[in-house]
């Protein structure tokens, strides 16, 4: 997908217009293949502060809707989100936009395509294998369709999480809350 196609998909005219949660969610969850080069061009021109806000907001949202018995998956997604947020908060540093783009691309491909969650419909024990993004959508929709599922996230826990050193001074310290620490009880 070329940059102009991506901009059209996101319903924006330029990368600087990437400002809304829905656009970022579409960027993560869209089932179209988006090349690393196209993402790099998008993030190169996008506002770094907005990218950091969108990253944080996206992970806060998805972490609210994880089954209670999937604590390891929750911890993994939280770590991925903190990693991306740390990189996003330092986008102006030498090479960090490229690193952020690579990590975003890796997460996007894993979350939407490569991960395999076993979802078992409780009424008839029929198993379906879905990527993590679709499994979480199914979990969110359970209350709408009267179907209940059990979710086995054990197959997605081997995500290759790279660790980067991000100075604490680079993180937003406007408030004392931990990122992603508002999971609904």
Notable traits:
three-stranded antiparallel beta sheet; single chain; globular; mainly alpha; 50% helix; 185 residues; 7 helices
Order of the strands making up the biggest sheet:
2-1-3
What form results from the Cα inertia axes?
Answer: globular
Strand content range? 5-15%
Oligomer designation = single chain
Mean pLDDT: 89
What structural class should be given to the helix and strand makeup?
mainly alpha
Portion in helices: 40-55%
Q: What is the number of helical segments per DSSP (H or I, 4+ residues)? A: 7
Q: How would you describe the overall organization of this protein?
A:
With 185 residues, the protein is mainly alpha-helical. It has a domain of 112 residues. It is built from 7 helices and 3 strands, in the order H-H-H-H-H-H-E-E-H-E. Strand 1 and strand 2 form a beta hairpin. Helix 3 packs across helix 6 and helix 5 runs antiparallel to helix 6. The protein is globular, with a radius of gyration of 17 Å. About 3% of the residues have low confidence.
């Amino acid at each position: 997908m070329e940059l102009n196609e991506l901009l059209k998909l996101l319903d924006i005219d330029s990368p600087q217009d990437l400002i809304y949660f829905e656009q970022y969610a579409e960027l993560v969850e869209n089932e179209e293949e988006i090349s690393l080069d196209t993402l790099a061009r998008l993030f190169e021109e996008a506002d770094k502060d907005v990218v950091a806000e969108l990253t944080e907001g996206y992970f806060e949202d998805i972490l609210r809707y994880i089954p209670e018995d999937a604590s390891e998956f929750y911890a993994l997604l939280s770590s991925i989100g903190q990693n991306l947020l740390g990189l996003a908060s330092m986008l102006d540093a030498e090479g960090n936009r490229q690193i952020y783009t690579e990590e975003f691309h890796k997460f996007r491909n894993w979350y939407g395509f490569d991960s395999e969650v076993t979802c078992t419909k409780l009424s008839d024990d029929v198993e379906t294998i879905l990527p993590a993004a679709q499994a979480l959508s199914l979990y969110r929709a359970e209350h709408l369709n009267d179907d209940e599922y059990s979710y086995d996230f054990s197959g997605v826990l081997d995500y290759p999480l790279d660790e980067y050193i991000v100075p604490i001074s680079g993180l937003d310290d406007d408030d004392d809350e931990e990122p992603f620490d508002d999971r609904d009880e």
